[in-house]
Amino acid sequence: LQEIHVAMASRKTSHQNRVNGDKYSVLLPTYNERENLPLIVWLLVKYFGESGFNYEIIVIDDGSPDGTLDVAEQLQKIYGEDKILLRPRAKKLGLGTAYIHGMKHATGNFIFIMDADLSHHPKFIPEFIEKQKEGDYDLVSGTRYQGNGGVYGWDLRRKLISRGANFLTQVLLRPGASDLTGSFRLYKKKVLESLVEQCVSKGYVFQMEMIVRARQLNYTVGEVPISFVDRVYGESKLGGNEIVSFVKGLLTLFATT
Amino acid sequence: MTKLLEWLFGVSLVGAVWALVTFDLLDLSLPQTYREVAWPMPLYLLVSFGCYSLATVGYRVATFNDCDEAAKELQEQIKEAKEDLRKKGLKM
């Protein structure tokens, strides 16, 4: 009986979504994600399918030598060319331009950005969408620092650096969002377009700049607690270089926004 | 106004009030006790802000959620996904 209820509920929501015409384009910039790409796509298809929202997945591969693009082409055959779009580029060109490149071909009026390495779980996608609708937010940001949000696979040092950096940023910039360096977010397409145009930083700082500029331009920001499961395959990095570039970026934003 | 300017403005405002009271710049002939309380005030503020920061960051590190469940769930879904994708004809 419960199954019938669930089935009816999902049919109902999918009907509603067809009526209101919202479409969600997921941008997945990849570099050497041959292992992870099929898994993230499978999960996206699962959760979008269950919740009944209209969607497409845009894979922006920056010339990965490991054959990520081959895998992406296979996935396109399995799930269809209307669901998986391939927009490869010849070489690694940075996150900001990847978003611009991906958005040119996006047919959705909303854009999801997330990491393709499985640290962001697609199960949160329905929560992002509900949150967005709840307040007609311009941007909904996933946060590891509030509610049931959290991390997996971080040692004490990593937690201390993360919390310390976050506290310092909150004090200096008062950005009105609790997770600035996270990169699991839902944007209205127009909002993302105007933000990407203005942001110049790289790496961690790019995500931070996006949300700080959003606040500066009076865009509204909603937040959804997410769990962040650190890279299952591949390795994650937080060395001295990342910290130095973070501090530089923070001070730049402090002086210019 | 940039955040930097906001901070400079705030700090100079507090600094000005502090100097007015400590050195009695307006000749208000304030009681001696006012001055005695005022002059070490910047140091007190700094120390209490430092303590507040340490306590806050310490508390947040200690209460940072470990999402063991999420990691376990993901591992199971990865197995499920691999099996399903193989059936659908994906060559990894």
TrEMBL record, chain A:
Domain of life: Eukaryota
Keywords: Endoplasmic reticulum, Glycosyltransferase, Magnesium, Manganese, Metal-binding, Transferase
Catalytic activity, reaction form: a di-trans,poly-cis-dolichyl phosphate + GDP-alpha-D-mannose = a di-trans,poly-cis-dolichyl beta-D-mannosyl phosphate + GDP
Domain Glycosyltransferase 2-like, chain residue ranges per copy: 25-194
Enzyme Commission number(s) from the entry: 2.4.1.83
Subcellular location(s) per record: Endoplasmic reticulum
Pathway(s) served: Protein modification; protein glycosylation
One MF annotation (Gene Ontology) recorded for this entry: metal ion binding
Record's keyword annotation contains Transferase: yes
Principal location listed in the UniProt entry: endoplasmic reticulum
Pfam families: Glycos_transf_2 (PF00535)
Cellular component terms per the entry's GO annotation: endoplasmic reticulum membrane
Listed cofactors: Mn(2+); Mg(2+); Ca(2+)
GO biological process, one term: dolichol-linked oligosaccharide biosynthetic process
Top-rank EC class of the record's enzyme: transferase
Family that this chain belongs to: Belongs to the glycosyltransferase 2 family.
Assembly with partners or alone: Component of the dolichol-phosphate mannose (DPM) synthase complex.
Function: Transfers mannose from GDP-mannose to dolichol monophosphate to form dolichol phosphate mannose (Dol-P-Man) which is the mannosyl donor in pathways leading to N-glycosylation, glycosyl phosphatidylinositol membrane anchoring, and O-mannosylation of proteins; catalytic subunit of the dolichol-phosphate mannose (DPM) synthase complex.
Protein name: Dolichol-phosphate mannosyltransferase subunit 1
Species per Swiss-Prot/TrEMBL record: Sparus aurata
TrEMBL record, chain B:
Entry keywords, A to Z: Coiled coil, Endoplasmic reticulum, Membrane, Transmembrane, Transmembrane helix
Record flagged with keyword Membrane: yes
GO biological process terms held by the UniProt record: GPI anchor biosynthetic process; muscle structure development
Protein location: Endoplasmic reticulum membrane
Record membrane topology: Multi-pass membrane protein
One Gene Ontology cellular component annotation held by this UniProt entry: dolichol-phosphate-mannose synthase complex
Source superkingdom: Eukaryota
Chain segments annotated as transmembrane: 43-62
Pathway in which the depicted protein is active: Protein modification; protein glycosylation
Coiled-coil ranges per UniProt: 64-91
Pfam families, A to Z: DPM3
Quaternary structure and interacting proteins, as annotated: Component of the dolichol-phosphate mannose (DPM) synthase complex.
Role description: Stabilizer subunit of the dolichol-phosphate mannose (DPM) synthase complex; tethers catalytic subunit to the ER.
Family assignment from sequence similarity: Belongs to the DPM3 family.
Name the record gives this protein: Dolichol-phosphate mannosyltransferase subunit 3
Organism: Sparus aurata (Gilthead sea bream)
Gene that encodes it: DPM3
